[in-house]
Amino acid sequence: MISGIIAEYNIFHNGHKYQINEIKKHSDAVVAVMSGSFVQRGDVAVTDKWTRAGMALSNGADLVLELPVCYALNAAPNFAAGGINTLNALRIIDEVVFGSESGDISELLNLAHSFENESYDVSLKIKEYMAEGISYPAALSKAYENEALQQPNNILAIEYIRALIKSESKIKPVTIKRTAVGHNDDTISDNIASASKIRNMLFAGEKINSLVPYPVSNLPLQSLSHLDNAVLSKLRLSSPSDIQNISEMSEGLENRIISAAQKSTDFNSLIENIKTKRYTMSRIRRIVIASLLNFTKDIYSPYPEYIRVLGMNKKGMEILKKAKKVCTVPIITKTADFKNGSRQFNLDLRATDIACLCSDNADLRFGNKDLTTSPLIIG
Fold first, then answer.
1. For residue 369, which of 360, 377, 359 has the smallest C-alpha distance?
2. What global pTM score does this model have?
C-alpha cells in the first residue's frame, strides 16, 4: 500500500506528524506532494522547499515531490487538480489521504457528487449570495444548507474528490478528522497548533519547540515583506492590458490594481487598497504575486508536465525506481538536465529565484537554486 498526501507543510508541525503516523498504521509508504516556493493562501512559504521537505522526511514521509507553483498559487479546485493529477501520473498510488473537519468520507463523497451535478438553482443561489458580499464558503453552506461547507479543509477535501472523479482515478480517497485545533485557530491544545499560529509565533520570536517534531534553531525564514518594492515597481510599470491575462484575474480588476499600486507603500497596504467584497484576500494576494512572476492563465493545465523530486529516504528511492517505469510524465531528479521548454517548469524556476529574495538571511538570496540543489536523501 502506497499512500499519497497533498500538503504545504507551511510549517510542518505535530498535527502533520500525527497524520503520517495514522497513515503508517495501515500503509507501507507515504508520498507527499508539497507546495514549493509559494503557497495557496497567497504568500511565500515560511522557509524554503528543501528545508520543509527535510522536515517531512525526518517525520515519516518517504518521498517528497514538488507541487508546481501553477497549482500551489491557485484557487482550491486548481490546487486540488494539480495534486491529484501528480499522484495519478505516478501510477503507483493506492490512496490519497487528507484531513477534514468532517472526518466522514461518505458525507464528503456525497457533497463532491452534488458539486459535480450542481443544479441551476443552486448555482444561481451561490452567485446571488456572493453578490451580497457573502464569502464563497458561506455562500456554499447557505445554498446547500450544510454547515460543513463553511470549513476550509472540508471544501479542499471535496475538491480532491472532485479531481479524482474528473480524472476517473483509481486512487481511493481517505480522510482523517482534524484534531485539537482548526485551520486558522489561534489556540494551542496538547502541543498541537495551526500552521498560521506557529508562523506568527516564529516571526514574533516566540519558542515553538513543543509544537514541532524537529529542532528549530537557525531555521531560515522567508517573509513577503522583502518583496514590497519589487511588487509595487512591477505594478507601477504595468498597464491594465499587461495584467489582464494574469492567473485568476477578472475583467475590471486590472484597473483597480493599477490604481492601488500608485497609492500603496508596501504589499499589505496594496492588498487593502485592492480589497473588495467580491474577492477573497487570498485570491487578491495570489493575483499580485502571479503578476510579479508573470504567471499567466495559459500556463495552467490540470495535468502536470513533469514531476519534480525534492527529497527521499531509502524506501522513497525504491518507490521512485518503480514509478519511473510507469509514470506518464518525466520525473526530474537533476533539474539542470530538464530542458524541454515547459512553461510550467520555467515558472517554477522564476518562483524559486523570487522566493530566495524573501530570505531573512542575505547569504541565502542568490539565484539559480533549482539548478544547483540536489534532492535531499535522508536515512
1. 359
2. 0.94
> Mean pLDDT, to the nearest integer, of 307-315?
97
C-alpha cell at 173: 480517497
- Does 183 have pLDDT greater than 60? no
Domains of the chain, each with CATH number or no CATH? 2-221+302-338+366-377 (3.40.50.620), 225-299 (no CATH)
Give, for 312, the enclosing helix (H) or strand (E): strand 307-312
In angstroms, the CA 192 to CA 180 distance is: 7
Cross-strand bridge partners of residue 29: 2
Neighbours of 317 (CB within 10 A): 16
Smallest CA-to-CA distance from 78 within 89, 94, 67 is with: 67
Q: How far apart are CA 254 and CA 265, in angstroms?
A: 18
- Judged against a pLDDT cut of 70, whether residue 327 lies above it is answered with yes
Gap between the Cα atoms of 246 and 297, Å rounded: 6
Cα–Cα distance list, 377 to 99, 131, 134 (Å): 27, 50, 47
Query: How far is the first Cα of the chain from the last one, in angstroms, to the nearest whole number?
Result: 21
Question: What is the torsional sign of CA 213, 311, 7, 225?
Answer: positive
Residues 6+ apart with CB under 8 A from 180: 15, 189, 190, 192
CA separation, residue 271 to residues 10, 192, 232, 247, 289 (Å): 21, 30, 11, 16, 11
State how far the Cα of 180 lies from the Cα of 193, in Å rounded to an integer.
Answer: 8
Sign of CA dihedral 304, 106, 22, 171: negative
Band of residue 142 on the pLDDT scale cut at 50, 70, 90: confident
How many residues does this entry show for the chain? 379
